[in-house]
């Protein structure tokens, strides 16, 4: 069994520099927090080779208390499964005298189930012609009962052993630990006959040999199975499981390699994903499937947007310019100093969110955090900020959609879905070019995201102003009323407005309410 319980710390759907920063390795992308098979404790039962005997398969099942065994090939490729029912049907199929040869049973399997001594012959080949014969002790009665290739079970009479070999038997098994006749051994070497010596009586040997057939002759091949990948969602898996009567289902990794078996019972015990939300708490901004997850904590600096939880939780929401200012404060409260890389990441987020402390959202807490983090990161705040803004405002080569969704958030206000995107630039000359790019895709974005209105802020860092491109019915009227400014076509110029959180969204809400 395996237990992959994790706690997922997630940002909002459209991460900005609070979550992803210049020069840093990208974090793992989480698009959905619904329960997946990877969240389930399932059986890590190793695969077996398709040539093992049904006796060996049964012994493994008994030891592991399993009723299904996966059959795998090299590099853990799933080949099929064998069930306890498959084994039972094979064992009770006693009327088929050619069952063993029909399964092309390896002689190595026969030796293994009988715990036999190989007296002579090549056991690397398979028994694929003939039947199983328990020979009488009377020589005359042997005539007509032994055909070429047969496996013959007999006891200690020397002449009977020699005659069985000379009649063309493919394998002679001398039972009850009896001695093998020297002349029979010589004849077997000439005829290519295998001679085995077993301690069991002929009847027991016959029963065991029936259990030597390879499971490849009875197993269910992969093409007839229902398999699941480790990243599949439990909702989808449960629906498929309920359509069949199988008890266990093979699980494969993302590359299609077998890793275990899962049952319906395993799914019933699956717990919800445990999630900590950072820099957001509104459902429309959260990762998909958040309603199926267990929210443990919320760390945020935005308005409360109506997220509800079935149980109490830890929430830390402070009116600061950047969520990383809160996180840095939590570092200090815990007596932990962030390393140089982490300090640089948090400083970058604070500079971005507060526009180098110029935004009206900026607080003394943001400034203090920025100063201390700059010392840890070993940079000069102003110099680093200029380099960062210069890199971040190089928008000329980017496609319109890429620009639109660089920092995009969705809100629900008075029953209407509103989307607000924002980019910042230090290059005043490229503002009009960005405006035209955004205007060309505005209607498509509104339709794609199911929005009533969309607004896009092109913020001039140096001038501390924004040009807002408006979309949707009555979009320009909303911004005109919110800021008492006249639109020019589909855009409104707003001097002194740089913050989406503290200026844009509250003003839009005031008009719509």
Description:
With 513 residues, this protein is of the alpha/beta class. It has 5 domains: 7-35 and 271-317, inorganic pyrophosphatase (n-terminal core), CATH 3.90.1640; 44-78 and 216-268, CBS-domain (Roll); 95-209, HprK N-terminal domain-like (Udp-n-acetylmuramoylalanyl-d-glutamate--2,6- Diaminopimelate Ligase, Chain: A, domain 1, 3-Layer(aba) Sandwich); 338-392; 400-512, Diaminopimelate Epimerase, Chain A, domain 1. 33% of the residues lie in helices and 20% in strands. A 5-stranded mixed sheet has the order 5-10-9-8-7, sandwiched between helices. It has a 5-stranded mixed sheet with strand order 18-19-20-21-22, sandwiched between helices. Strands 1-15-16-17 form a 4-stranded parallel sheet. Helix 6 links the parallel strand 9 (171-174) and strand 10. Helix 5 (158-166) runs parallel beside helix 6 (182-191), helix 10 (323-333) packs across helix 12 (364-377) and helix 11 (340-354) packs across helix 13. The mean pLDDT is 89.
Write the layout of secondary structure elements.
Blueprint: E1 7-10, H1 54-64, E2 68-72, E3 78-83, H2 84-91, H3 99-102, E4 105-106, H4 107-114, E5 117-120, E6 126-127, E7 132-134, E8 151-154, H5 158-166, E9 171-174, H6 182-191, E10 194-197, H7 202-209, E11 220-221, E12 228-229, H8 234-241, E13 248-252, E14 258-263, H9 264-268, E15 274-278, E16 294-300, E17 314-317, H10 323-333, H11 340-354, H12 364-377, H13 381-392, H14 400-404, E18 408-413, E19 416-425, H15 431-449, E20 453-460, E21 465-471, H16 475-483, E22 491-495, H17 500-512
Parallel strand pairs: 1-15, 7-8, 8-9, 9-10, 12-13, 15-16, 16-17, 19-20
Antiparallel strand pairs: 2-3, 3-11, 4-6, 5-10, 13-14, 18-19, 20-21, 21-22
Helix pairs in contact: 5-6, 10-11, 10-12, 11-12, 11-13, 16-17
